[in-house]
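Give me structure tokens for this 398-residue protein.
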Amino acid sequence: MARVPDFTVSNAAAGSDTVGHQEPGDTRLAANTDRIRLDFRPGAPDISLFPSKAWVSGVRDAARCGIELKGYEDRRGHPLLRSELARRLGRVLGVAVRPEQILVTGGFADGLALAASALNHLGLRAAAVEDPCLATHRQVLTRAGLLVHKVPVDGDGLDVTALAATSARVALVTPTHQFPMGMALSDSRRRRLLEWARRVDGYVIEDDYDGEYRFDPRPPGPLYALDPSRVIYGGTTSKTLSPDLRLGWLVLPPRLASAIIDGVPHQRAPTLNQMAFSEMLREGHYSRHLRRTKQEYQRRREHLLAAGISLEGISAGLHGVLLIPDEGEVIESGRQRGLVLMGTRSFWHGPPRHHGLVIGYGRPTREVAWRAMNELIDHIRPRLTPAGPGAIPSGRHT
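Here you go.
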């Protein structure tokens, strides 16, 4: 039977779609695990909210019918899961998605590696990433043989003018909720980004890593809906269920589908996990889980805001950035009282343009979440200046 994921403070899930356990070069976290109580690192959901009954039911149904053994030879992923995903994504993206366009992956980074390798073989030799971004994704592109350009973000998202000045023909972006800073790509920049892709005959890889968790009444929609021919859309269960499942998907432009799928040697995600997730989608368990967890994470974010913790960007996701000049001191003093915090430093390509905390309010388990957040507030609030931490300015280029 598929393992129900388990997170502990000292054994958090790590891997392709998660943030590392500590700042690079920092060995103190491992040395002090007995003192760690409250973990606010970004990159993982509250594992106590995992829908164990629905998941086990899905595994049981799949095993009973034996359907997990059929379709294993299809490199794109199990046909039943791709059909369920096509139906769901058609509603989410607002455009028709065919099962044959979907590639089931072992998480977003796995899909990114497959796409980057295929694009390199097609002659697209350079890619652009947002600065800041997740270091793992930069490394994946480099390992695929692509030259990687860093492109700054501001309050309107990726600077498309700066992108156009590079040799890139591929852009990896988080347009609906920039990671880690939290802004959404403005409407004008969305249009210009797609115009850029058409002009250079290139592609945008959209990492919609927490797209199920938008708290505004009218949240920004996926970039894919604006031009399915130029956007490779990536989704994952890492933030909604668990990174341990190693389950994600790409929606491929028709003209790229064969080139990318031909480079896939075998199915990327555990078959039984695919089938359990397919059953959750079919029975409506996944939608109910999302409604329940969305309310929980929204309440946590609003609790921090109400306490005067000003978070950058849009109202969304499982994390928020608090700009603060002395992130190192706040992280270290928090460590002494059992708080595990992460700064923005490791996400920048070079010298940071902003300093702050990336607060993963989604990670603490429900049993301790509110006490954890109150302790975090007590730790941070005395260090805030009366004028507030400031905000990331919008760009001059539209």
